[in-house]
């Protein structure tokens, strides 16, 4: 895979269907236009970029585009690229219509998961977007604001999430929040008001998230986890739960993607019980060896709440996140947000809207994907050379990896690392209190160090490994 794959172009989530690459690709594109996921005027990636993303020959994509232009689904104009044709307006039939602990860097090195490389924040591009957005902003944008979130941001997010993450989104069902944690807090409150008592969680997870649900008065039983992800196919474990919180694209922290059968089982469970799936898509954009796994929400937008965040793709300090809600939940979530006192400021929302609309977000994500993929490859290579007994897993995506340790070694390795100024997390730290004791392992956040600190952090890690 060449470096240009990661930096060039725009993301588009597509799953070619049926037999034959070209016809499968054409059908996937027709379907995305037909269902309104790709709206008229949406610019598609160049044939070169999409071919690289899908791992197919460029001619396959170019031929598919050309045929769809001939059929009237797409238009191609020199200088403005290939776009969804205006006359193939989204017929919102079918799916769309029917379902009208922060990481603190200590002295030394930090390889705890949870943070992107903060030194890579795109300051210049963000400032350009802020200048443009604030110059154009109407006076009312500096008022108290609508708890729903700025319509400018909701509009570009709907296009971006549909295009890049396979989400069924329209601006009306998006609510802007102060990161995932805020979104989860609001959902916990709303579900409690709906008399939900339990939200099932994964047996390994971020304890901050269960604490937020507990504070909302909810119990948080856990689902078992194996090499295919969380056991959403065990209905007994979900009995009594009104919702289940999952990280389907890249389980946090073990890194397993949820198996397609388990994705289907989660949605089936929600449909048959009236429950909800809360999809935490915290790092879904970072997948290295093939196209990102699409959002689970695309399977049933009325039963899955999609939660996204700028915390991994840009920076957690922005406190910007978004929820794509079932229609029936929008009013209650907006009402819950209206009475709370934490909201994302309009200037930042407008800046993010401009940042996405200008293409700077796609460029940043693609260049960071390249950086993190390189670090992941360096981590794997360093382990093979300097700690060949250590197995590494969960590396197809995200900003962290799991390193298996000999039984009983986890605590002493974490302590030895701390003694040498290297901040690390063991896997046990993420285990649900009711989950059975598991393997000994480290969760290594290779995204966290700055570029200049990375080589030293990797070296320090190799030195503390048994
Ligand atoms: C599993 C998981 N979900 C969500 C988030 C993002 O949270 P927030 O948007 O509140 O910063 C993180 C960040 O570390 C995470 O690890």
Automatic annotation (TrEMBL):
SMART domains, per database record: HTH_GNTR (SM00345)
CDD domains noted in UniProt: AAT_like, WHTH_GntR
Domain HTH gntR-type, chain residue ranges per copy: 19-87
Region Disordered: start-end pairs: 79-116
Name of protein: GntR-family transcriptional regulator with an aminotransferase domain
Keyword line: Aminotransferase, DNA-binding, Pyridoxal phosphate, Transcription, Transcription regulation, Transferase
Composition skew (Low complexity), residue ranges: 96-108
Coiled coil: none
Family the entry assigns: In the C-terminal section; belongs to the class-I pyridoxal-phosphate-dependent aminotransferase family.
Annotated PANTHER family: HTH-TYPE TRANSCRIPTIONAL REGULATORY PROTEIN GABR
Keyword Transcription regulation on entry: yes
Gene Ontology MF: a single term: pyridoxal phosphate binding
Organism: Streptomyces griseus subsp. griseus (strain JCM 4626 / CBS 651.72 / NBRC 13350 / KCC S-0626 / ISP 5235)
Pfam families referenced in this protein's UniProt entry, alphabetically: Aminotran_1_2, GntR
Domain of life: Bacteria
InterPro entries (alphabetical): Aminotransferase_I/II_large (IPR004839), HTH_trans_reg/aminotransferase (IPR051446), PyrdxlP-dep_Trfase (IPR015424), PyrdxlP-dep_Trfase_major (IPR015421), Tscrpt_reg_HTH_GntR (IPR000524), WH-like_DNA-bd_sf (IPR036388), WH_DNA-bd_sf (IPR036390)
Species lineage: Bacteria, Bacillati, Actinomycetota, Actinomycetes, Kitasatosporales
